[in-house]
Description:
Elements: E1 4-6, E2 9-11, H1 26-57, E3 71-75, H2 80-91, E4 95-100, H3 103-117, E5 122-126, H4 132-145, E6 151-154, H5 172-194, E7 198-203, H6 227-248, E8 254-260, H7 270-275, H8 279-290, H9 294-297, H10 299-306, E9 317-319, E10 322-324, H11 333-346
Amino acid sequence: MKSSALGGFLVQPWPGSDAPGSDPGPGEEGRVGLLLKCGALLGVTLICVVVFRRWIAGGVCRCSVHLAGKTVLITGANAGIGRETSRDLARRGARVVMACRDLTRAEQAAEEIRLATGNGNVTVRHLDLASVYSVKQFAKDFIDSEDRLDILINNAGVMMCPKGLTEDGFETQLAVNHLGHFLLTNLLLPMLISSAPSRVVTVSSIAHKGGRIDLDDLFFSTRPYSPLESYKQSKLANVLFSRELAQRLKGTGVSSFCLHPGVIYTDLGRHVYTSFPFLRPLLSLPNLMFMKTPRQGSQTTLYCALTPGLEGLSGRYFSDCAEKEAAPEGRDDVVARRLWEESARLVGLNETI
């Protein structure tokens, strides 16, 4: 490294510069090596993140079925996986009926779907699954105004909410997640049968594992209420209902499937954050990394609703666009039958299939 005089000033070369006659020193080589290592580490990290996110996304419904002339009913269709399911089915040309409690949000979602898909045959109807009266009124209006029903998707749900009772005296999670859908499905069965081949798809959860149906105290009247245990009971009820429904529908041309959509980044867990607000900032980034998007979460619902040849698997449980084995408690036919009978009694359903 040489210095030079310029206008009376002594000019020193910048350390490690490529001045004539200078060679990179060991310090410069170390910095270059460090940069290369950091770049390689960053590249490997990005590749790992992409691969991990694809693994988290799970299966993809690759079915190309078109639904022109078909009618699909989806509960809880204004947000989350219900909205994404509605969008996909509208894009396939189906008449999509979005059954929602919040009509304002539902109409906003429906308009967005109409514009995005070019399908103007997307409609909104009011349905409050926590009310037996609302479910019965909805079913009556639907039967009076619709010609057919090819796919019923029982998608709506609540998760780990504080203990509450509906206007009918039912515990909220069991009422919305199970009893409302149980009643709705039974009331629409004549139309499903007349439209056969048709399907009933019920969105459950992996949380059914470890759940317990307490037929003597379904509403936590005597046992201590636990938001998690209540949720697990309701999701197990979904699995058992779908299984028993398949048994009762044999020979009718109507198939029944239930599924775990995955752990999804939606507002379904809002009650968890309400109870533990400090978790929201702590889990925001991990949620984005480890949870599915609503679109990814809708794939197994679409798989069960659309894939040809699944009729022989009616009553089964699916996850990541593949059949999976439900937990042992979800395969108990005795409990499934008893739950059906008790559910019918609770909602005042005198005649079932």
